[in-house]
Amino acid sequence: MTWILANAERLGGLATVAAALIAILATGIAVWALLSGRSSQREATAKDIYRDYLKLAFDNPEIASGRRVDKAMEEKYEWFVAFLLTSCDEIVRIIRGDETWRKGIRVDLKPHLEYLKSPEFDEDGGWALYSSELKDIAGEAAGELSEMSDQQNSVDRPAWHEELRFAKKQQLPAARLTAFGHG
What we know:
mainly alpha
């Protein structure tokens, strides 16, 4: 006990240092917990937004697949795509740089790329209404679709198919097409 009293001043300094270290550690843990909670909240929000889109897609499978059956359905289709893009844009803003979400968004955009490249889409505001990151993701989806198409063409098509495509592109007369054995 006398030793403690004799060294009280030194022990008091150590206690102050220890308290400061504990306070710094506690602050670090609190910041980590806060950031972790925010990340979890962002993920939950993104899932809620996506769930709303999936419900709409489930209720409208023809439109969700990109098929437009008739003119009467055209306006409903355009509103559906606007909902899809708004949902995807919100997700992109919430979950930045997450490749899993980007991949899912690319998959959902692919059936609608034709419309997204159309004058009708541009007339309705087009990409000016959405983030550049979402536009980039749509570009990635278009690239993937093009690559898939190229692979499918090279695998599933006979060799004469490229010659026929070239002839049609050059608008060669029908006599030239029959020279390929297809006309």
